[in-house]
Amino acid sequence: MRHFGLKRAFDLSVTVGLAPIWAPMIAGIAILVRVKLGSPIFFTQRRPGFNGNIFELIKFRTMRIACDARGLQLSDEKRMTEFGSWLRSTSLDELPELINVLRGEMSLVGPRPLLVEYMERYSAFQARRHEVPPGITGWCQVNGRNSLLWGEKFVLDIWYVEHGSLWLDIKILMKTFMQVIVRKGITAYGHSTMPEFSPMLGRVADDRRTKGTD
Length: 214
Description:
Layout: H1 4-17, H2 19-37, E1 42-48, E2 54-60, H3 76-79, H4 82-90, H5 97-103, E3 107-109, E4 135-137, H6 150-163, H7 166-182, H8 199-202, H9 204-207
Parallel strand pairs: 3-4
Antiparallel strand pairs: 1-2
């Protein structure tokens, strides 16, 4: 995949063109987050992007700030609220990432940016996900999202790296819209989000040839 110039132009045209829709939505949701969860409204976190360059990801906060008697942060399951679960199930918590797209830190479509600490755990195969800009949605997201095992996610991410095109981006965006409506694959089984990545969990990605699924 080397259509970066065309991909960037497409990202900007779609994001700017739809700003009259998503900008008021972000403003309205920000008010709801402030009322339901308090401050801060946004969740920001350092994530690796294109070529492993670190940027600040922006999302709406979906969990309350809560610690145990020792001052340690409670688990995701205990901090998640009904309102936060709704934001995640509708993917509305991802809307502020459009700001990352405008900044050129993300694309509309690409492998999801994972945690910085995962980078040192990747095999050479898995690290190839950084050969393209990270995305708000991606081939992995429309083929199972968090219902997939880690290894399966990497296989799909690298398939996108090797086969990405503007037409595939458009196809993924259309499938994402339908998936948001049916709210499939939001969480991994038995988890409020997704279990932490480890080399053992991702090993299947090195044991299989890359492939895509329709």
